[in-house]
Amino acid sequence: MTNPLDLLTEQHQHGLRELDRLDAALSRVQTSGNLAAELATIRQAVTFLDTEVRQHNQIEEDHLFPVLEATAPGGPIGVMLDEHRELWAALDALQNSLRKLAARSTDEAARDLLLREGLHICDLLRNHIAKEENILFPSARECLTPSQLERISWAMEGEASEEYKRRDT
Ligand SMILES: [Fe+2]
């Protein structure tokens, strides 16, 4: 069995590459002022965050965080959950600004919000992933039992087959 923590780490690496793409697109908008040229890349990143990162975070919240919290109550899990919530609030704001820009592409306030929230997401999620990789996952590797690891694997396979079914229809 592949260690599900390795799969979650692979997803972190994938996430960081997507954030680099989003960050680069937002920086180009800042320097060129040409938002229209970057909208497809920005929308792609939003879809990635809304689907794959959302699933990833749910697996962590359902199957990883409770075990770690039980092992070390009052540890960093509360902060991790707060950061997940902060990410979804920022993504909501970003999606809102995209909707406003779709209705009126010259909406300056929506454009400013899009840049601010987009860059905030890049910053937040990079730091969050670094904390998980440097603090959380090493302690998870120490304390998770084989049956707890197996449960995470099942959950991830379940999500993957659900996703497969959705794509198939
Ligand atoms: Fe994560």
Describe this structure as you would to a colleague:
The protein is mostly helical and 169 residues long. The protein has helices at 4-32, 39-71, 77-103, 108-143, 146-168. It has one domain: nmb1532 protein domain like (Four Helix Bundle (Hemerythrin (Met), subunit A), Up-down Bundle), CATH 1.20.120.520. The mean pLDDT is 92. Fe (ii) ion binds next to helix 1 and helix 2.
The CATH class is: Mainly Alpha
Bound ligands, each once:
fe (ii) ion
- Mind telling me the CATH superfamily name? nmb1532 protein domain like
The overall pLDDT, averaged over residues, is 92
Rg computed from alpha carbons, rounded to a whole number of angstroms: 18 Å
> Spans of 5+ residues with little confidence (pLDDT < 50)?
none
Q: What's the architecture, going by CATH?
A: Up-down Bundle
Query: What is the domain total for the residues?
Result: 1
**Level of helix content?**
over 70%
Number of helices: 5
Strand content: under 5%
Sheet of most strands: none
Structural class: mainly alpha
At CATH level 3, the topology is Four Helix Bundle (Hemerythrin (Met), subunit A)
Shape: elongated
Could you tell me how far the N terminus lies from the C terminus, measured between alpha carbons in angstroms? 29 Å
Q: What's the order of the H and E elements?
A: HHHHH
What's the number of extended β-strand segments?
Answer: 0
Task: Provide a short characterization of the protein structure.
Helices cover 88% and strands 0% of the residues. By secondary structure, it is an all-alpha fold.
SSE order and pairing:
Blueprint: H1 4-32, H2 39-71, H3 77-103, H4 108-143, H5 146-168
Helix pairs in contact: 1-2, 1-4, 2-3, 2-5, 3-4
